[in-house]
Amino acid sequence: MVPYSCGLDAAADVIGGKWKPRILWALHHGPMRFGELRREIAGVTEKMLIQQLRELEARDIVHREVFRQVPPRVEYSLTGLGQSLNVALAPLDAWGAEHLEILEASRAG
Amino acid sequence: MVPYSCGLDAAADVIGGKWKPRILWALHHGPMRFGELRREIAGVTEKMLIQQLRELEARDIVHREVFRQVPPRVEYSLTGLGQSLNVALAPLDAWGAEHLEILEASRAG
DNA sequence: TCAGGTACTGACCGGAAGGTAAGTGATGGT
DNA sequence: ACCATCACTTACCTTCCGGTCAGTACCTGA
Predict the structure, then answer these.
(1) Among A54, A64, A78, B89, who pairs with A82 as Cys (CB 3.0-4.6 Å)?
(2) Is the pLDDT of residue B3 over 80?
(3) Does B99 sit within 8 Å of A81, measured CB to CB?
(4) B103–A59 CB contact, under 8 Å
(5) Who among A7, A89, A99 is closest to B81 (CB)?
(6) CA at A71, C1' at C25: how many angstroms apart?
(7) Which residues contact A23 (CB under 8 A, 6 or more apart)?
């Protein structure tokens, strides 16, 4: 495996995957339960959501906390690193929002 | 196809793909010939480079200009939209650079 | 004459990413 | 007794992204 060629390369690797940006953005407002995330992020399946959450957890971007209750309660939140990442993502979100129409128009598929 | 759920979603779609961030970053310093890009971006194949360039061109992120010469000369440069994208990408690059070590450490592979 | 540089194009292939559907185990509601 | 909720887990299948390799057309320099 080749080392990252620049910071952008590394960042892209972290937020890579179909659902990670959505997850990051959803957690922006505070901790969320698994089921809440699932409902918030339209179209995601349980398997995909967990998979991506686990990857973000392994990267120390999100924190997973289990409350031993019945029914089980698991909360996901951003770590300090995750919050700093979200800050860095803000301009990109703004860019996308500003050019939404052209981007929708030139979209493949 | 579902509309983009937020600006970040749209932006991620534009810079998605293994080589696009590298291409954007390489063009940051000004127009480049195909061969120059190829040498600058270590590991990319001709097919992949062209494919990604064409996609970026279709999105109006890069501009392609052909000089009818012998040998052929083709230059790629950022459009206005591409430059604004690069500006929005800068904080993300800085974030990646700042946490390069942890990110390398927690990398899968 | 023939390799080498220029900027591509196209056929084929493998693996990984992502999607579908079903099952798990404890508990609370009707 | 039965179903739903919670947070997962597993097996299986399909799609597609990216990689290899070969070929194209043109001209230059040895």
Answers:
(1) A78
(2) yes
(3) yes
(4) yes
(5) A99
(6) 11
(7) A37, A41, A49, A52, A53, A56, A62
The answer to whether residue B105 scores a pLDDT higher than 80 is yes
Distance in angstroms (rounded) separating the CA atoms of residues B63 and B79: 6
List, in order of start, the domains of chain A with CATH numbers. Answer: 7-105 (1.10.10.10)
Please check the confidence at residue A70 and state whether its pLDDT lies above 80.
no
Q: Dump the DSSP string for A72-103.
A: -EEEEEE-HHHHHHHHHHHHHHHHHHHTHHHH
pLDDT tens, residue by residue, A32-62 = 999 999 999 999 999 999 999 999 999 999 9
- Length of chain A in terms of residues written: 109
Residue type, A2: V
Condensed to tens digits (0 to 9), the pLDDT of residues B34-48 reads 999 999 999 999 999
* Host H or E run for residue B6: none
- Please give the Cα distance from A44 to B38 (Å, whole number): 37
**Is A29 an interface residue toward B (CB < 8 Å)?**
no
